[in-house]
Amino acid sequence: MRRIVIAVAVAIAVGIGVLVGAIAASGGSSSSSASEQQMQQNADKWEIDQLQRSFHRATTTKNVALMMSLYAPDATFTLPGSIAAGKKEIRQFWLTSKSMTNNWISETPIYKVRISVNGDRGTLYFECHYVNPKTSKVVSTTAADSDVARINGRWLITNLAGASSSLSP
Predict the structure, then answer these.
(1) What are the residues whose beta carbons fall under 8 Å from the beta carbon of 139, sequence distance 6 or more?
(2) Residue 132: which H helix or E strand, with range?
(3) How far apart are CA 91 and CA 88, in angstroms?
(4) Are the beta carbons of 167 and 83 closer than 8 angstroms?
(5) Is 3.40.50.300 the CATH classification of the domain at 44-164?
(6) Cβ–Cβ < 8 Å for 68, 87
């Protein structure tokens, strides 16, 4: 009798182990799935935020190659009165831009960054405050409202609309 009880207990334990393994393999509970989705969304937002950080590093260091690495091959860049389509035209804009030809430091207050994510697409808005390092004064401000997409596993700007902005909290 004792052997039968032990055999049944082992069978139940093995069955529970198989059931737990099956649940884990299928994604587990909805709360686990929701938490994984939230973690993925946070990771995506962090990667999108790196675009604006690299943007400011590129303008501060006058690194056109870094700037161009932020754009999708068929990206568009829109400014009041002009549109640059594709990386060749966007590169030409940056080669002659005041933010690349002046000795300014580019920065953005973190509270002026907005990011949204929906799957492999998202948006990125940020303001640029260009500071003259000799005078420590803000000499120019602009804003960028961008569409971004995950392309080949990497977030890139697909459309950037530039506009003027004003200094305000």
Answers:
(1) 102, 104, 130, 131, 132
(2) strand 121-132
(3) 5
(4) no
(5) no
(6) yes
Written as one letter, the residue type at 44 is D
Widest Cα–Cα separation across the chain: 92
Query: Per the structure block, which two tokens stand in for 132?
Result: 């003259």
How much is the pTM? 0.76
Q: Tell me the per-residue pLDDT of 61-85, one tens digit each, with 9 for 90 and over.
A: 999 999 999 999 999 999 888 899 9
What pLDDT, in 10s, does the model give residues 83-97? 999 999 999 999 988
Amino acid (1-letter code) at residue 65: A
Cβ partners under 8 Å of residue 123, min gap 6:
114, 115, 116, 145, 146, 147, 148
Q: How far apart are CA 91 and CA 93, in angstroms?
A: 5
pLDDT at 20 over 50: no
Q: What is the mean pLDDT of residues 45-52?
A: 96
Query: What is the Cα–Cα distance from 126 to 58, expressed in whole angstroms?
Result: 15
CA 143, CA 106: separation in Å to the nearest integer?
A: 12
Question: Per-residue pLDDT for 142 more than 70?
Answer: yes
